Each structure stands twice: as structure tokens, then as C-alpha cells.
Known about the structure:
Distance between the termini: 29 Å
Radius of gyration: 20 Å
Oligomer: single chain
Strand content: 25-35%
CATH class of the largest domain: Alpha Beta
CATH topology of the largest domain: Alpha/beta knot
Structural class: alpha/beta
Low-confidence stretches: none
Mean pLDDT: 94
Order of helices and strands: EEHEEEEHEHEHEEEHEH
Shape: elongated
Amino acid sequence: MNIFIATVTGSTGTLTPEESWHCAKVLRKKTGDRLHLIDGKGNFYEGDLELVSEKQCRVTITKGPVAQTKRNYYLHLAIAPTKQIDRIEWMIEKAVEIGIDEISFISCKNSERTVVKKERIYKIVESAVKQSLQALIPRINDLRSFKDVLKETADQKFIAHCYEEPKQEIRQIAFAGKSTFVMIGPEGDFTPEEAELAKQHHFVALSLGSTRLRTETAGLYVCQAASLLS
């Protein structure tokens, strides 16, 4: 089933320019064809195609909105992008399929990458949302400094690092009914100073098990754990 992202106003759905091009030029949809739409805000729709153009496709809504079943937790993952960006892109695709609400990118002392193409990331997110039959597009934030990310608020905040100190086991976290913010560092880990600064901002050190994980593996591990433990 093909799903298209649209702006819905009243009984009319207008596909985004990229979705319109795909609908008209790639799938060669015709006037009167039935389409399945999402608005990116958590709602599904169905309707009949009334205008077909590679620049704009318009749909008359006949069914909806039908709200996507909401998860009972809110997960915000902040992660330092890896030098090979395709590793993070893969993680984001899978994280969206599993379930995530917000993604931030951190620039740390040991970061190997200081540039992230947000537009490309957003396209990956949109594709994963449609592929997994979801209607809510997660929020994607710009790359920010470590100190700026520390200002984020949530019911519970964690930082995953490799230093020896008492840590919260991820299997012991109660995700359900709460907003959770988790920071994952670069391949070289957070610096001791960053770990200490996070503690001063009420972040709890988080254990992801006894093995050392790659950055993208750690990020996906958190998403999977939140889904299972909630």
C-alpha cells in the first residue's frame, strides 16, 4: 500500500511537491484513484485523487481522520553523528520504524563529524514512517553543542558513557507514562568533563550492558529497550 504525506485542510489533502512528483511521474496515478494519506501529525486519511500534476496533486478526503494509536511513552534521543554518516542514517531509519518521538544531534569534544544534512535525514525519516505504516513524523532537530543540549527538559534524563561509576541499568527504567531523554556520545565517548557537566544538569549515568557498543548500536538499543519495557 502506497502512503502519501499531505497537508490536510477541511476535506482537501494536498500532497507535498516531492510526493506529488512521485504520485504523478513514478506511480502514474490517475484522476479518481483512491489514495491513502497521512498528515505527519498522527492522522490517517483516504480520498480520491481529483488533480494530478507532477507539481501538485490534490485529493478529496472521503475517510478520516483516523488517529494513529499513541505509544505510552515519549522518547527523545540525542546522538553524536558518526564520521560515516550512513551508519547514523541506518540507525535513524530503524529507530523510526521501532518508535521514537524526537531526535537531536550533538557536537561533542570527541565528535568526528560537525555537519549533518537535516534535509536528507528528514527524507529518511519520512520514508521510514510511511514504510512502517505510521502517521506521526518524529521531530528532527539541528546539530547543537553539548552544552546547549543539556538544557533539554524531560521527566527523566540519562547519559550513556563508558566510565566506571554507579549507573542505572536500562532494564530498570520505567518508560511508560513518562518523557525520557537519552544522550549517546561519539565513538571516542563523552569526555570526563562532559560526563560531569551532565551530572550537574541532573542526568543519570546509564548502563547499556557489559559490552561496548558502537554509537549507532547504542542508539538503536535504547529505542528497542523503550519499546519493550514500556
